[in-house]
Amino acid sequence: QVQLVESGGGLVQPGDSLRLSCVVSGGPFISRKMSWYRQGPGKQRELVASILGSMPNYADSVKGRFTVSRDNAKNTLHLQMNSLQPDDTAIYYCSLESGQLTYWGRGTQVTVSA
Question: Which residue blocks in the chain are alpha helix, DSSP H?
Answer without folding.
Answer: none
